[in-house]
Design a protein that fits this description.
6-stranded antiparallel sheet; elongated; 483 residues; single chain; 10-stranded antiparallel sheet; 2 domains; 20 strands; alpha+beta; minor pseudopilin epsh fold
Length: 483
């Protein structure tokens, strides 16, 4: 009897009552709730640190690849699909008043040069219109501008065409420029000489899905509108190498700018430089273009009226993703915030060379480690290459906001900041940064990379918000921390 009672007593003490379980669960919930404010920031902080490490590793990896290949290598930041790109029609440029962020990295390398076939340079827009093609009417061709008296005068880009035949009437190899060459590629005419920049034609642009900016006159397979050559203008009838006949054929053509200040106003290729030169909130519009001129020997050749020139050339193409390259994604909810990338007051988040059509950021390194320009324009004036630093602002998605940019002087706020900053630094601010951030700074002239854990918004002299440059001042002075 006693043995059975003992067994029954032990059985009753082997479990917990419902009240006991509820008490334990309640205690766990209280402890968890108290710990969450500490644990979550720590996890986010770790994610941002990991994101900064991945970005810094990608930069250093590209620099090492450039050394080993003895050729330029780089990285491309690709837009975060969480925030769809919103182009401003019809130009296809991205809306600078919306969020722009990147969360993927892909390695880049220089594309192989292209030199198939031969070309002929045109002399003027009149020569083009004589065969039914006016470059002023086509994208990348230049449009019109105003002279000092307010008169509308033609100001086209330079034009080259495919040379179907040489001077002896022998057929040249065909070119393949349309949907192969991209706007921003460089071309050298002859074995050596000046590098010109390709600006078009580009009938189908970014708004039509051509985000890589391939030159074209329509969808692939669309015939070139340049159906006859210039030989009838260069030679009197009966004096051409073909006995007075002009060979038929649809010739490819390209528009170019020369990277020089042709009109002496202190601006270079102002119709194709990515800058609002006349301050009317429109970029590279027709009335900004200057009349482009040929440089060196090409100028004398085109001026000699010998349009049957059949010249060699080399196209130096912009970088492309490395073969079999794999994307590297930043940790979840961590992005490179590039919002206000086109602000005239200076970017308040990242300061990077953003492609205004694709949202890509291409950064290339020479074998010596320094940054080399990759802009589609003939000069780097439109990108932060005028600065000695690239700044990558890594943040949590919760801290991404559309900027509050005034549309007129009567709107508020009339000056920066356009995005949230630290709480309490600006009177009347309705929001503030809530999460962590990291600033990865690349010294463009040395290749050095540093990471800082927080932004500096206080002006050390006045104690007030010091404008959009202040968040980066510590990094630019060489401070580092928060790895």
């Amino acid at each position: 009897m006693r043995s059975g009672a003992i067994k029954r007593g032990l059985g009753r003490r082997g479990g917990f009552t419902l009240v006991e379980l509820l008490v334990v669960i309640f205690i766990i919930l209280i402890v968890s709730a108290a710990a969450l404010p500490v644990v979550l920031p720590a996890l986010n902080n770790r994610q941002l640190s990991e994101g900064a490490r991945l970005l810094q590793g990608a930069i250093v990896g590209a620099q090492d690849a450039a050394v080993h290949a003895n050729a330029p290598r780089g990285i491309r930041l690709m837009p975060d699909p969480t925030f769809p790109l919103e182009p401003r029609l019809p130009s296809g440029e991205l809306d600078p008043t919306r969020i722009l962020a990147s969360n993927r990295i892909v390695p880049l390398e220089a594309a192989p040069d292209y030199s198939e076939g031969r070309l002929t340079p045109y002399r003027s827009s009149a020569d083009m219109t004589a065969v039914g093609l006016d470059p002023r009417t086509m994208p990348g061709g230049g449009g019109v501008t105003m002279d000092g008296l307010g008169n509308v005068v033609p100001a086209p880009a330079l034009v080259i065409e495919e040379a179907l035949y040489d001077k002896n009437g022998v057929r040249n190899n065909p070119t393949s420029w349309f949907w192969n060459v991209r706007v921003g590629d460089k071309i050298r005419i002859g074995k050596s000489g000046w590098l010109y920049t390709v600006t078009g034609p580009m009938v189908l642009g970014p708004a039509d899905g051509n985000v890589e900016l391939f030159v074209n006159v329509g969808v692939p397979g669309t015939p070139s509108p340049l159906a006859q050559g210039m030989e009838t203008l260069a030679y009197p009838t009966g004096n051409t190498p073909w006995g007075g006949t002009t060979p038929w054929g649809q010739r490819e053509f390209l528009f170019l700018v020369n990277g020089r200040d042709d009109n002496g106003n202190g601006l270079v290729d102002e119709g194709f430089d990515g800058i609002d030169n006349d301050l009317d909130s429109a970029y590279d519009e027709p009335d900004e273009w200057e009349a482009e001129r040929w440089v060196g020997g090409v100028a004398s050749a085109t001026g000699s009226n010998e349009f049957s020139l059949s010249l060699p050339y080399t196209i130096v193409r912009r970088p492309v993703p490395s073969p079999s390259a794999r994307e590297t994604a930043l940790p979840a909810d961590v992005v490179v915030d590039m919002t206000t990338w086109a602000s005239s007051f200076g970017s308040e988040r990242s300061r990077l060379p953003v492609d205004r059509y694709t949202g890509y950021v291409d950064i290339m390194f020479s074998p010596r480690g320094e940054v080399i320009p990759t802009t589609i324009y003939s000069t780097p004036a439109s990108s932060p290459m005028t600065d000695a630093f690239y700044h990558f602002w890594l943040a949590e998605r919760q801290d991404l906001h559309d900027p509050i940019i005034p549309s007129s002087d009567s709107d508020t706020p009339s000056s920066p900041p356009f995005l949230p900053i630290t709480q309490g630094l600006v009177a009347g601010a309705t929001n503030a940064l809530k999460g962590e951030q990291r600033i990865v700074t690349l010294f463009t002239r040395t290749g050095q990379v540093v990471t800082n854990s927080s932004a500096t918004f206080l002006d050390p002299v006045s104690g007030n918000y010091g404008g959009p440059n202040r968040p980066f001042i510590s990094a630019q002075q060489g401070a580092r921390g928060g790895q």
